[in-house]
Amino acid sequence: MPFVILEKSDRVGGRIQTDEVEGFLLDRGFQVLLTAYPEAQNYLDYEALDLRKFVPGALIRFNGKFRSFIDPTRQLSAIFSTAMSPVANFSDKLKMASLRKDCKKKTLDQIYSSEEISTFDFLKSKRSFSDLVIESFFRPFLGGIFLEKKLETSSRFFEFVFNMFGRGHAALPASGMSEIPNQLASQIAGEKIQFNREVISFTSDSVSTRGSDQSVENIDASAVVLACEEPVAAKLLGFRPPPQNHVWNFYFDAAQSPVGDNILVLNGTGKGPINNLCVPSRLSENYAPKGRALVSVTSLSDSQNVKDFQDQDGETLESAVRDQLIEWYGDPAREWRSLPKYKICNALPRQLSTPKISHDLPTGVFTCGDYLEIASSNGAMRSGRATSEKVVSYLNSKQ
Q1: Verdict on whether the full-model pTM lies above 0.90
Q2: Helix, strand, or coil (residue 63)
Q3: What domains can be seen in the chain, in order of their start residue?
């Protein structure tokens, strides 16, 4: 079937983007690919992506020191350090093993149909984890995934994520996260994608677009798919989007890595602007020029209100981030050179419950996006696949 993809920006990928700046690869926001994602396994060539894996666990800043908290079933050498780690009591560690086992054996259909409460209530009430491990580990770890600190996100989202972590690894493509959409786009003839074309209106049989030169073009269509983030879909369809989660991502050029492994660093203190930190150049030498290290810092927003987030002062926040980095890593962090920072509005749908379509669509118009699934790259691909099947069925019915 003939088709055309209209892309507002100058590249594919949506929120998955990588910028090259002075020899550094800067992903727009800290993102990873979970290798167990079923849709990713179906559509991506992992070998071609040259995936670099994170250690299955975290280094947690706690009581003035960095404490190792690694899954000993995945890395046997960590069994002693994790057993002695003060970020969780002995009972928590047993419950963690039980939780990992229970989540891993569930099918995705079972997760999608399980009881739905907030992640915090699931951890506290259903699994009886202590405040100690919730505050030191779960809140910063899951906060970096959900992009919200209160753990209000649906427990189904949590179970899905924990299932994926249990079945595979968190990884980065060796040349940046943008290699994922680039690989998918490489399977489509170039002329099928029109860049710098913004959709300004549509009907079920026509789409009106505006180019970067402000030229307007109308395109006849047999079906229309809105494959975009929720606020854009809301604008085009005329409904009010639910709140979104926003995030800051800061990058620094360091003479050497402050972290000695391919591991995620979490702020288990509950204080300061840093939620999590990693050094992508530890995983892949492509992320930084030779002899340099790239440090990535994530800072979560306290508000889902877009205007409040847009009004935040990045320079003031970056200064506070650097102060905390100096507290953690000493004087060398004073010398780290600031690289571009990313203020990412609508970084992730705020999913307090499993997504449900709450608006009517005109005949011949379809939507897809991660906001219609458990929000993730897997959700985006799952939604795209399901929508394509609906479109094919619809077009066949018209013949």
Answers
A1: yes
A2: coil
A3: 18-175+244-349 (3.90.660.50), 196-241+355-398 (3.50.50.60)
